[in-house]
Amino acid sequence: DLKGRGLEAGIPHFNLDRLASNTMASHRLIQYIGKHFGLAVSEAVYDRLNEYYFVEGHALNDKPRLARVVVGTLREVLSPDGTICPEEQEILEFLDGNEGRKEIEDALETLQELGVHSVPKFIIEGRTVIDGAAKPGVFVDVFRAIENRGFLQSQAVFADILGVPPETIQAGSHTREHFIMTAS
């Protein structure tokens, strides 16, 4: 069942009473943050929005609340290194516009072509689709095959579609320092 899969994926209080909502605004916002602040920051915001939606049960299309939560998360993540954080009004103006919509629509089309109709999913080498609640052994098998081959058969499938600059992809989201900080 869905609640059991949530528990397996590390969501202890999976809220089944939440209202389904259009996620275009939140996906555009994650893309925007990734382009402007890097993947580590967009990952932190993405994690917070998963909690906001799946645990707290809030709608992802409530733009004022979404802006408030995202700005709060950005302040936590960006303030320690002195990066200037956007204000709620700036995020609201972005959400009320259409920037990033075409890229998200193109990404959705690619997901349909890959046979992805629900989340969470992992797409490895631009072609191997793994369910987010898959057992660890499934991932180990895929990564061992890549390791044994010695090279990737293809690159990230969504970087070009979403307009994420190559230097952002190269910087990555989970550096050695990230793992050291989260382990302590």
Walk me through what this model shows.
Helix content is 59%, strand content 4%. The two termini are 33 Å apart. The radius of gyration is 17 Å and the shape is globular. A two-stranded antiparallel ribbon has the order 1-2. It has helices at residues 2-8, 24-37, 39-55, 63-78, 88-96, 101-113, 136-149, 159-162, 166-171, 176-183, and strands at residues 121-124, 128-131. The protein is mainly alpha-helical and 184 residues long.
Could you give a quick summary of the protein structure above?
With 184 residues, the chain is mainly α. It is 59% helix and 4% strand.
Task: Indicate the topology.
Blueprint: H1 2-8, H2 24-37, H3 39-55, H4 63-78, H5 88-96, H6 101-113, E1 121-124, E2 128-131, H7 136-149, H8 159-162, H9 166-171, H10 176-183
Antiparallel strand pairs: 1-2
Helix pairs in contact: 2-3, 3-4, 4-5
